[in-house]
Specification:
0% strand, mainly alpha
Length: 176
Amino acid sequence: RVRPDEAAVRLPALPWHGRAAQVRYAVLLAACVLVAQLCAGLLHGPRGYWLPMTVAFVYKPDFGPVLRRALHRCAGTLVGVAAIGAVTLLTTDAYVLIGAVAAFGAVMAVGVRHHYALATTGLTAVVFVLVDMLGDHRALYSARILDTALAAAIVLVAHFALWPASAAERAAAQTE
């Protein structure tokens, strides 16, 4: 649980603090989601949900450095796709896949408390097992890796191009 005094430290310091920082973040997030949705529409048509969803998960500057979250999201997605790809290559048995959902759900639960890449690994694997139970969707594996990398790039470009001083402002706020 975050204490109120910790939350204030996580938001950028002057000149963008308080309501101004929240509005700036909301505008940047909306712009990133819009760009992601446009890219998803061009790449995938009406089923391009992964790209904007990933932008929303990655672009949370109040939860730590955006670069680290983007890298962890990419790594977790890659490992999750590889892990579930290995499982589905070995078997299509429904009970084994349900066991995989339970195992990767546990990985996700541990990761939520300890490491974002681990949580992403579990989440990615669970999503793909559930999607695969509806039919073989292995062709989506490479598309989701590309979508995750593209979403991370959108967030990083927007964040560092439009709010380049955010890291320095956060460091100053934490040392005051």
